[in-house]
Design brief:
Layout lengths: L8 H17 L6 H8 L3 H8 L2 H21 L7 H18 L1 H7 L12 H7 L1 H16 L8 H20 L6 H19 L4 H7 L9
Helix pairs in contact: 1-2, 1-4, 1-6, 2-3, 3-4, 4-5, 4-6, 5-8, 8-9, 9-10
Length: 215
């Protein structure tokens, strides 16, 4: 999981305020006055928490990945690695829905302008996300459910599919969202795991537990 300072209600409000401004107005709309006002505090409090605006923006990205990691850490393993991948899919979607402003900032869908995090730093912040998906893929490969591919290659395809769907859902292309999950995301991920080597009938059976809270 990414490292971050102990969370406090004020710190969380400042991060969420900054994420909302970046997501809705872009970097030109980001100012200490606006962030502090939305969070219900002073600019002095903002600087005491983060030191500078670039540090605040980096903390926003860090927070987004940390919250996603928290969702992943709630996934419980079973004896069915394909069903468990479905739990990973659901955790990813739940995170994006819970914090849409953080999501678009952490993945660069919202412009960060001069506050842009360099690629190496961004990869470091998002590493837990990728490693968690890769670990699930590795279990499926070792169980013989997926082709003997490198887990990183499987994880890259899974993450790409999840991110593509989540981005479109947050942009309002799937209304209502639960219908999008049922009619678009679930079939997409089923086709993906079958394409990656799982037996179709076994995959269908495992997928019955996917997105059960969204159906």
């Amino acid at each position: 999981m990414t490292s971050r300072k102990t969370e406090s209600p004020m710190r969380a409000r400042l991060l969420e305020s900054a994420a909302h401004l970046l997501a809705t107005e872009g970097p030109s709309g980001l100012s200490t006055r606006k962030v502090a006002a939305q969070a219900g505090t002073s600019t002095m409090s903002l600087y005491a928490q983060f030191g500078s605006m670039p540090e605040l923006v980096r903390a926003v990205v860090d927070e987004g990945f940390a919250r996603l990691a928290t969702q992943f850490d709630r996934v419980v393993e079973t004896d069915d690695p394909i069903a468990d991948l479905g739990s990973v899919f659901a955790a990813y979607i739940a995170s994006g829905r819970a914090d849409p402003d953080l999501y678009v900032v952490m993945f660069g869908s919202a412009s960060l302008g001069g506050y842009r995090t360099d690629a190496q730093d961004l990869h470091s912040l998002g590493r837990h996300t990728f490693d968690f998906i890769a670990a699930g893929a590795e279990r499926a490969v070792e169980a013989g459910r997926l082709k003997p591919l490198a887990p990183v290659a499987v994880a890259a395809q899974i993450w790409s599919a999840l991110h593509g769907y989540m981005t479109l859902e947050l942009a309002g292309y799937f209304t209502p969202p639960d219908a999008g999950v049922r009619n678009v995301l679930a079939p997409l991920m089923l086709n993906l795991v079958v394409g990656l080597g799982d037996d179709h009938d076994r995959a269908v059976e495992s997928s019955r537990s996917w997105f059960v809270t969204n159906s």
